[in-house]
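Example 9 (inverse folding). The structure is encoded as follows.
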């Protein structure tokens, strides 16, 4: 997947146990982000990288992190302490990062652990007593653990903030600032974000110290590899069009995005009634149900996975060929994240959007952000009665963060109150676990949890409302 064929993994300063794990994984050349980030992180520098999922960024920070920690193995971690902290917005992403740590670190003797909400806290507290080398966490649960004195940061060497833009979108800024305030000053910082918006730069100011800035132009390169097209369709006929396309083209693995949890459930039922195998993942599903659905989708026993945006965040499936936007997202950047699910690691893919007349302004917003018109195709059997208006002329993006599209008339809400982001509310019986097992738990859904009270769009992996005892 590399654009820099002259760089080899062996050129980057990685130790043999890590190179062996990379070879086992079948990677031949480092991706651009890896080629740049790995030596910088090994040298101890702070790094600020604009790269989104799909660029190989996880290995870009995990490999050098493990290298540094294994070099300093003499430093034994004390009870409740952590040597490296990786903060990430969603449970799925946290689970996947910890899985990567396990894979890349399999020939090293380092201990890692993942913590997120929606599962019992006590097993996490117990496990933390031994201390861990690498802790992967979502912000809310980590604050909870900190407030219960289950985790201490006095031995922290490296702090990694992953998907920082997403963290801000999800309203985690206060939690992040509180956490940063309790970390030791002398530490290495890595910040990853899809974009360097003014908000991210402001956050970076208080975080990174003379960082190496890396940008791998992920969004454009992703967009280039994905064949994007749309078809105009009446809202009511969307399920029929989707079924038609899946059957007609014999699509074997399709990730479908809906705006709401209810929409995801309804569509899944429709597809099943049509004789297709489908499963839904969203915030009302227990962690166990989500993990199960994802596994079935990966092994091919379920062909269609219907997901809301946040639930789908971090899903990493090699060679995912087909993404369908059943509804357009309210936030244009979500479109970029969605289509980034396909064409991963240099593969090509196809992203189709089913667009009804009242989603026109959402389409305008998306086309503005991706700076291109999406090709329109007509499906003869489904010509809409309500015509979809024309695209607008593409104006150049302003510096900084791309503007958000206004909510469409029928989409209900604007960006500040993001209806489609589902509150991650599953409770359950799993525990904070060793990353190797990646036991993300199988819990029941709690009703009346706090997502309705929060302004945060989707409060992922946070469990109980964090106590606000950390003062800046
Ligand atoms: P990430 O951006 O970290 O989510 O990685 C996206 C995908 O690229 C994952 O499936 C990785 O396993 C894969 N990947 C990461 N690094 C490489 C590499 N150097 N060569 C091939 N695939 C890679």
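The amino acid assigned to each position is listed next.
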């Amino acid at each position: 997947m590399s654009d820099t064929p002259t760089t080899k993994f062996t050129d980057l300063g990685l130790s043999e146990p890590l190179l062996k794990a990379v070879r086992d994984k079948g990677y031949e050349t480092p991706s651009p982000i890896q080629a740049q980030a790995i030596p910088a992180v090994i040298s101890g520098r702070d790094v600020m990288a604009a790269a989104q999922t799909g660029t190989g960024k996880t290995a870009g920070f995990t490999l050098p992190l493990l290298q540094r920690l294994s070099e300093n193995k003499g430093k034994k971690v004390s009870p409740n302490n952590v040597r490296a902290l990786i903060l990430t917005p969603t449970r799925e992403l946290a689970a996947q990062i910890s899985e990567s740590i396990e894979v890349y670190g399999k020939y090293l003797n380092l201990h890692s652990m993942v913590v997120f909400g929606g599962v019992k806290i006590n097993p996490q507290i117990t496990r933390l007593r031994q201390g861990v080398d690498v802790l992967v966490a979502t912000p809310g649960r980590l604050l909870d653990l900190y407030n219960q004195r289950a985790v201490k940061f006095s031995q922290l060497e490296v702090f990694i903030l992953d998907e920082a833009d997403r963290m801000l979108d999800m309203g985690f800024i206060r939690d992040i600032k509180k956490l940063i305030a309790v970390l030791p000053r002398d530490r290495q910082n890595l910040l990853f974000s899809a974009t360097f918006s003014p908000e991210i730069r402001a956050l970076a100011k208080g975080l990174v110290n003379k960082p190496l800035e890396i940008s791998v132009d992920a969004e454009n390169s992703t967009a280039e590899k994905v064949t994007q097209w749309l078809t105009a369709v009446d809202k009511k006929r969307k399920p029929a069009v989707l079924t038609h396309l899946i059957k007609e083209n014999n699509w074997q693995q399709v990730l479908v995005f809906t705006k709401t949890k209810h929409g995801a459930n309804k569509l899944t039922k429709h597809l099943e009634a049509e004789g297709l195998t489908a499963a839904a993942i969203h915030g009302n599903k227990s962690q166990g149900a989500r993990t199960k659905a994802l596994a079935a989708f990966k092994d091919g026993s379920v062909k269609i996975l219907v997901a809301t945006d946040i639930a789908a965040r971090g899903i990493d499936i090699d060679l995912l060929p087909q993404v369908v936007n059943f509804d357009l997202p309210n936030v244009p950047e979500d479109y970029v994240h969605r289509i980034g699910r396909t064409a991963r690691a240099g593969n090509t893919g196809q992203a189709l959007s089913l667009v009804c007349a009242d989603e026109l302004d959402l389409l305008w917003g998306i086309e503005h952000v991706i700076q291109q018109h999406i090709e329109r195709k007509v499906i003869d059997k489904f010509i809409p009665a309500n015509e979809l208006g024309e695209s607008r002329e593409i104006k150049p993006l302003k510096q900084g963060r791309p503007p958000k599209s206004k909510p469409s008339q029928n989409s209900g809400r604007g960006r500040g109150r993001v209806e489609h982001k589902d509150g991650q509310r599953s409770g359950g019986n799993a525990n904070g676990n060793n990353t190797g097992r990646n036991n993300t738990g199988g819990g029941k859904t709690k009703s009346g949890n706090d997502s309705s009270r929060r302004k945060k769009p989707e409060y992922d992996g946070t469990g109980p409302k964090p106590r606000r005892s950390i003062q800046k």
